[in-house]
Amino acid sequence: MIILGMDPGLAISGFGLIEYVGNKFKMIEYGAVITESTMPFPLRLKHIYNSYIDMIDKYKPDAIAIEELFYNKNVKTAIAIGEARGVHLLAGEIKNIPLYEYTPLQIKQGIVGYGRADKKQVQEMVKLILKLDKIPKPDDAADGLAVAICHAHSLKFAEDFRITGY
């Protein structure tokens, strides 16, 4: 099974693609989709959308796991990130890829075994689980891989996390 993990964002959207077969992980690709703050907002959304559509076409994931947003005190920022997250979801939906969402707490629990783990602990576990030489950079890419690993660990309960409607 190929899983695309997404850490949605507007300026930086981290992603991680893994293969999960028989309790074994293989890292396929990771990185970030970056948009410049000087770009008009609609073009930033278009760039994110096109980047994920290209990625889905290239790697043909069986599932997409995405991090659920947490509340941001800056309402304007929260709305912009929410709109960007919608574009992430749209890319998966357009391509008929099942979508699953996980809270930051669930991701930490699924990676480290402790829902209050810090970012460094999660990054170290991602490195260890995927047998990488170093922690993936940028941090958003490590987060994308963590979401994908969390989904793999949750497969027997996956339907509980499937996005079906609001």
Secondary structure tally, helices: 5
Distance between the termini: 27 Å
- Beta-strand residue percentage: 15-25%
Q: Tell how many strands the DSSP assignment holds.
A: 5
How is the CATH topology named?
Answer: Nucleotidyltransferase, domain 5
Shape: globular
Strand order of the largest sheet: 3-2-1-4-5
For the report, how would you describe the main beta sheet?
5 strands, mixed
Helix content: 40-55%
**C-alpha Rg (nearest Å):** 15 Å
pLDDT averaged over residues: 93
CATH top level?
A: Alpha Beta
Succession of helices and strands = EEEHEHEHHH
- The fourth-level CATH homologous superfamily is Ribonuclease H-like superfamily/Ribonuclease H
Q: Which CATH architecture?
A: 2-Layer Sandwich
Please explain how this structure is put together:
The mean pLDDT is 93. Strand 2 and strand 3 (24-34) form a beta hairpin. The chain has five helices and five strands. The protein is globular and about 45 Å long. A five-stranded mixed sheet has the order 3-2-1-4-5. It has helices at residues 41-59, 75-94, 104-112, 119-129, 139-153; strands at residues 2-7, 12-21, 24-34, 63-67, 99-102. It is an alpha/beta fold and 166 residues long. It has a single domain, classed as 2-Layer Sandwich (Nucleotidyltransferase, domain 5), CATH 3.30.420.
Short overview:
By secondary structure, this protein is α/β, with parallel strands linked by helices.
Descriptive keywords:
166 residues, alpha/beta, Nucleotidyltransferase, domain 5, 22% strand
